[in-house]
Design a protein that fits this description.
about 1000 residues; alpha/beta; seven-stranded mixed sheet; seven-stranded parallel sheet; 40 helices; about 15% strand
Length: about 1000
């Protein structure tokens, strides 16, 4: 007899795993009577029978009454005595009304109140602190499984399987089988979408979740809405993408009935995961039910289990991509860590076994929404409501603990004070959850954090750097465990929080990859449509002398000079606007609500772009408005600008204004590049060097899916003026799948650095000792400053150091600070000499003045003029394909660095200009001298055109002047097209060349 591969056989597999038997076996043994239907068990479920299902109430009535009679007989008898004739009908009708109003989740948690009686409908999973009675009660719950459930009152339709608790349905399942040519992804979902939603069982809130699965994949929905039903994957992931891995012992989806559909698992999900958003005052159908996705369930359970087995003092790195639902994962984890208990007396560390491992959970985040979400979740999960508090200082931390607060929420910039507070409260144990992914929504976070760390910088630093700096020179105390959530771990983050493997590599504790998020449809592939523009320049000398300059640095500074000029920005702004209006705005992408972001190099460039875009929009009748975002104030061309002044509304309102339909373009430098969620963003114009984590975070502003706007990957578009596709690929590859660290940083380099620094003679060891002793005994700051000034004077004058020697010393000192600062918390030994030198250098380095090697480059900007600028598209709608393999990051460079490793090739300025033009101006075959002659010839012909004086030169109307010039230029180019065929082709076919050519001629004519 051949093996059966029908759908029914998948039903039997699941039923047998849950109950230990299956319906056909019972029927064949003539045991189809209810009392004999429950034989040997596996997960301890009972068999349910379809004739016991009441479709009107969506209830297994036999098991519902059995549960009440077995567990609450006295309460039921009292109610029966008061209502002798219709007690059953009254209970069922009250149950039905309550389910329609509140949903099954609330009734399972809070029970049913009717008249003066109360009936529990689910006994919760016992905790370690629970008494024996609680444990016995949980065993009295009746978990059951029913196949071919006749859910419809009007037809004979059935649902393949339903799981019940105490007669109440909690999970429905539609099963499909690949071997019969049907799949859950298509046929199962279609079947649910075509069901009669007027039937009680399928109404929102009567069940917790509706699953469709086959032998390969599983999908779930919490609300059936016909054709609009949203199904989410409930898969483990395979090869760090969608789907499920092969199962050597059975079907790929067996984890559902083997792991998820156990008694303890389902009760745990009900008690600690499933939540109903919104107020109980709202109609049930207006609310949203959240059921955890597989990776959310897994990561929280694994973390809780690991904490129970290993106790406090551990570090965990959770690498979860955007689209993973980190907000929910963090809130579920925060609440459950409160009730995490040690598994044995050793782990309890002298505390009682029924005392939670952690006295408090500290959530470090800058998401205001997360604060509210945690509070709302706790209301549902906890009987005690007032257990959450903010803490912005170590004093507030202590106060919150004294008041019995279990969850304490703080911000990243206040994190240093909290770490100090944890160290002071050594008798308490903490869990610290760090949410770094959305840490710079306001832009001020990094500024404040830098100030808290005693650092002033214009550079953008992300939260990983700032959190690691907070921990510098602080040994990680044994009374805290750290749980760090990030989508883009750096090498230093992996080393600080990752799990060290047997081969010395570091890996995240849990992974939900960008690849899986994209393949499952939770985020869009932002680099699927990537277009790069290559800039072409011509630089001409404006002075005759030929100074020598460092060639490599000169090239870099020349490019920066060209890119920030108003001429260049005007050209690029016009290209951006032409594209956005024609391809996004006029095409009414995202149902007419699509928005774009312009990413610029710095605040000055952002201001210039904002003004250029507004000028161009004004010429085109202002079809929409632009917004600019930057922190603080900036002086450009002698005028001071602020974000609020330029936008015309408060800085705090920028995000809300940009959400309005009238605002379509947002111009930024660093602000809003990370942590800014705006699903209407679908287009980005990049004029900034993007690398590493910042590149991924910046471009990921576009990847938020928006089903209500029909947002798809093909709607996304990136136009990049600065980077090439290989650079973008290199940035994304490490975070597409899994990120690991190849090995630990070699801290022995600190010995070499210290020795090299000591040899210079800027400080004496006795001075270092006296300074650190004074610093840690609260010596007056003036005395400390004078100690540092002794070393500064030696550096500046006494030692007679050459400029390069000064630079070399400062570079090595900063490298020592960086490596020791990041490694101090995890070095498994004490090294007092390093610790002392760290604190001495921390105060010395800011006072060491050296000439910036780039200062000489300022000379070169006075020696050249920008005479023409053009752009050519090099990659159009390019699909950047990322690597599926795990990416290994190398540890930070531990080789001692100095000032002697630069490329010192010196070239005369003529050679630099030649090389520069050769590299950046390849679109036109003529030599630079020929270009100049042809250019001047065309300019002269324009000047002699019959309409030049009247329609252009003396025309006060800007708009008609522009039109007139375009017409004159077309006339001249047409006259010359036989003699200048190559030039004419570029002019006619390349819009970027035409724009550059036109604007250059206008400037040359000086009108």
């Amino acid at each position: 007899m051949v093996t059966s591969t029908k759908e029914k056989d998948l039903e039997i597999v699941i039923e047998q795993a849950l109950t230990g038997t299956y319906r056909e076996q019972v029927v064949n043994n003539q045991l189809n009577e209810p009392s004999a239907g429950y034989l040997a068990t596996h997960h301890g479920f009972q068999l349910g029978f379809s004739h016991d299902f009441d479709p009107h109430f969506a209830l297994d009535t036999r098991l519902f009454w059995a549960f009440l009679q077995n567990t609450q007989q006295e309460e039921l008898a009292r109610f029966q005595q008061l209502n002798p004739n219709d007690w059953a009908r009254k209970i069922l009708e009250r149950l039905d009304r309550s389910l329609k109003k509140y949903g099954v989740l609330q009734l399972l948690k809070k029970g049913l109140d009717i008249d003066n009686a109360h009936f529990d409908l689910l006994y919760p999973v016992p905790l370690a602190s629970s008494g024996e009675k609680v444990k016995q009660r949980f065993e009295q719950n009746i978990f059951s499984c029913m196949r071919q459930v006749p859910y419809s009152r009007s037809s004979g339709e059935t649902i393949d399987m339903v799981l019940f608790i105490n007669g109440l349905p909690i999970v429905t399942l539609e099963l499909k089988n690949h071997w019969t040519g049907q799949t859950a992804r298509y046929d199962g979902q279609k079947q649910y979408r075509n069901r009669d939603l007027s039937q009680t069982l399928l109404q929102f809130g009567r069940c917790l979740v509706h699953f469709t699965l086959d032998t390969e994949e599983a999908f779930m929905a919490t609300k059936l809405s016909g054709a609009n039903t949203l199904f989410l994957p409930f898969n483990k992931g395979h090869n760090q993408g969608k789907g499920n891995p092969p199962n050597p012992n059975g079907h790929r989806t067996a984890y559902l009935w083997q792991e998820i559909f156990t008694k303890q698992s389902l009760a745990n999900i009900i008690q600690h995961f499933v939540r109903l958003d919104g107020s109980s005052k709202e109609p049930l159908e207006k609310r949203t039910l959240f059921f955890p996705r597989y990776h959310q369930l897994e990561v929280v359970r694994r973390l809780i289990e690991h904490a129970g087995q290993n106790g406090v003092g551990k570090r965990y790195l959770i690498q979860h991509s955007a689209g993973s639902g980190k907000s929910n994962s963090i809130t579920w984890l925060a609440y459950q860590l409160i009730e995490a208990y040690p598994h044995n007396q050793t782990i309890a560390n002298g505390r009682a076994l029924d005392r939670p491992i952690f006295d408090s959970v500290i959530v470090v985040t800058d998401r205001r929404l997360l604060d509210k979400q945690i509070r709302d979740n706790i209301k549902e999960f906890s009987e005690v409501r007032d257990i959450i508090a903010p803490a912005m200082s170590s004093a507030e931390l202590r106060e919150s603990l004294e008041k019995g607060k279990k969850i304490i929420i703080t911000t990243i910039q206040k994190f240093p004070f909290i770490v100090d507070g944890i160290a002071d409260l050594s008798d308490k144990q903490f869990a610290v959850i760090i949410d770094e992914a959305h840490s710079s929504q306001s832009g001020s976070t990094h500024d404040n954090m830098n100030k808290a760390m005693g650092k002033e910088s214009d550079e953008l630093e992300d939260a990983q750097d700032l959190i690691l700096k907070t921990m510098q020179a602080r040994k990680m105390r044994g009374n805290a465990s750290y749980f760090a959530f990030t989508a883009t771990p750096k090498n230093t983050t992996l080393e600080k929080f990752g799990e060290r493997q047997a081969d010395g590599k570091f890996k995240p504790f849990h992974l939900y990859s960008m690849k899986q998020a994209i393949e499952e449809g939770f985020i869009l592939d932002v680099i699927a449509n990537y277009t790069t523009y290559r800039s072409f320049y011509e630089i001409q000398k404006s002075i005759e002398d030929n100074p020598e300059f460092n060639s490599k640095k000169a090239q870099k500074r020349l490019k920066a000079y060209v890119e920030r000029s108003q001429q260049t920005i005007d050209i690029k702004a016009e290209i951006m606007l032409d594209h956005f209006i024609a391809q996004v705005f006029n095409r009414k992408k995202l149902k007419g609500k699509a928005k774009g972001m312009v990413v610029t190099q710095n605040i000055e460039t952002a201001i210039r772009y904002f003004k250029a875009l507004n000028r161009l929009l004004n010429e085109r009748g202002n079809p929409f408005k632009t917004v600019i975002a930057f922190s603080g104030s900036k002086v450009v061309d002698g005028l001071e600008y602020t974000e609020a002044e330029m936008n015309g509304f408060a800085e705090s309102d920028t995000k809300d204004y940009f959400d309005k339909d009238e605002y379509r373009l947002l111009v930024v430098a660093n602000k809003y590049l990370t942590g800014f969620d705006q699903p209407k963003l679908c287009t980005m114009y990049v004029d900034k060097k993007l690398t590493g984590v910042l590149c991924v975070q910046a471009l990921s502003r576009l990847n938020r899916s928006a089903d209500k706007l029909d947002k798809r990957t093909e709607d996304l578009f990136v136009l990049d003026f600065f980077n090439d596709t290989e650079e973008i690929k290199a940035a994304f590859d490490p975070f597409y799948t899994s990120t690991t660290l190849s090995q630990a940083t070699d801290v022995n380099v600190l010995h070499e650095l210290k020795m090299q620094l000591d040899e210079v003679g800027v400080y004496e060891q006795d001075e270092v000792n006296r300074f650190t002793e004074g610093y840690f005994t609260n010596l007056d700051v003036q005395q400390l400053s004078s100690m540092i000034d002794v070393a500064v004077n030696r550096f500046d004058l006494e030692l007679g150091l050459e400029q390069e020697a000064k630079i070399d010393f400062k570079v090595k000192a900063k490298q020592f600070l960086k490596i020791y600062g990041q490694m101090a918390a995890i070095i498994p030994f004490e090294q007092i000499a390093w610790e002392k030198l760290f604190w001495f250098l921390k105060f010395l380095v800011p006072k060491l003045k050296v000439q910036d090697p780039s200062d000489e480059m300022d000379e070169i900007l006075n020696a050249v003029d920008l005479s023409s600028y053009g752009l050519a598209r090099t990659k159009l709608n390019h699909r950047i394909r990322l690597e599926d393999e795990e990416t290994e990051l190398d540890p930070q460079n531990a080789n001692p660095r100095g000032a002697h490793q630069d490329d010192k090739t010196k070239d005369p300025i003529d050679e630099i200009i030649h090389n520069f033009n050769e590299k950046w101006f390849q679109g036109w075959g003529a030599t630079p001298e020929e270009q100049r002659v042809k250019f001047l010839n065309i300019a002269e012909r324009i000047r002699n055109h019959k309409d030049f004086e009247q329609k252009y030169k003396n025309n006060p109307d800007i708009h008609t002047r522009g039109i007139a010039f375009e017409q004159i230029l077309r006339d001249v180019m047409s006259e010359r097209h036989r003699d200048e065929l190559e030039l004419y082709k570029l002019f006619a076919k390349d819009p970027s060349f035409k724009t550059a050519w036109t604007q250059s001629l206008q400037r040359a004519l000086g009108v």
